[in-house]
Amino acid sequence: MKNEKKKTGLFFGSFNPIHIGHLALANYMVEYHELQECWFVISPHNPLKEKKNLLHHAHRYRMVLEAIEDYPKFRASDIEFHLPQPSYTIHTLTYLEEKYPDRDFYLIMGADNLSTLHKWKNHDVILQKYHLLVYPRPGYENHPYDLHSHIIMTNAPLMDISSTFIRNAVREGKDIRFFLHPAVWKYMDEMNFYK
Length: 195
Hints:
Elements: E1 6-13, H1 20-32, E2 37-42, H2 57-68, E3 74-77, H3 89-99, E4 103-110, H4 111-114, H5 123-129, E5 131-135, E6 151-153, H6 163-171, H7 182-191
């Protein structure tokens, strides 16, 4: 009997920094969509976003490791730092598929990202080959892809927290420790990040 592939979620992001919204959404996807694992894929730089204020990848990777340390279904991946730049999701997926043939990869993304999917390199191939687990984002209720068979619109809780909010709050001297995993808050504070 052929072994079933391991259902693995890929949560791409700059995680600048990783916060409780990211962790809660990944936790939801694992528990409610039967993923065996969720990998946090730290991106060097999203080609559709500005690069300023982006911490060095080693620090962002470390913060993800700190945040997920005690949960066995989460894993940190810095794979995109070892692939040609700029990093495109389709290249990463192709590489991971070759490297891990025993896994069935699902993309975890926000409805805001779904709305710009048509701008992604080879987005049609991504839609054809992979399932997308989409979590809600404020202001992004309707999509041209809603009826696509590979897109699963989830009922994940609405998480209106962003890394931009975290960075701005820290810069303003706010103590927002409860928006972050305690180990991430400690590391950020010790390193004086975003101040």
